[in-house]
Amino acid sequence: MESPVRLESYGEGLKIEWSDGVIHRLAWRDLRFACPCATCRVKRESPPQPSAPASVSGSLGLTILTAAEAQPIRATKLRPVGNYAYAIEFNDGHNTGIYPLEVLRELGMEGTV
Ligand SMILES: [Zn+2]
Known about the structure:
With 113 residues, the chain is α+β, with helices and mostly antiparallel strands. It has helices spanning 28-33, 38-45, 54-57, 67-70, 101-110, and strands at residues 4-9, 13-18, 23-27, 75-81, 85-90, 97-100. Helices cover 28% and strands 30% of the residues.
């Protein structure tokens, strides 16, 4: 299991330098979306709101955000949890997400630039 040797905020996200030399840039927005806490998992797995009017939900996979959701997501706090995870607090007030290192690593692998 690789471990991060350096974590650094680059503004829009988190830059992680791993012990094997790989560097990942994870956008806060992607990290927030991938939040592994129970609340967010349930939210992601629940079916889309059937009450949304067709004109808003659209047919092109377009997501209309509320004003609160539209503000750029960023982390306000990053706290190590033991030596296996990081707790991330976001500016939307969400602070229950604990990201195990393997989750961060997987997210980085998916979005490698
Ligand atoms: Zn969450």
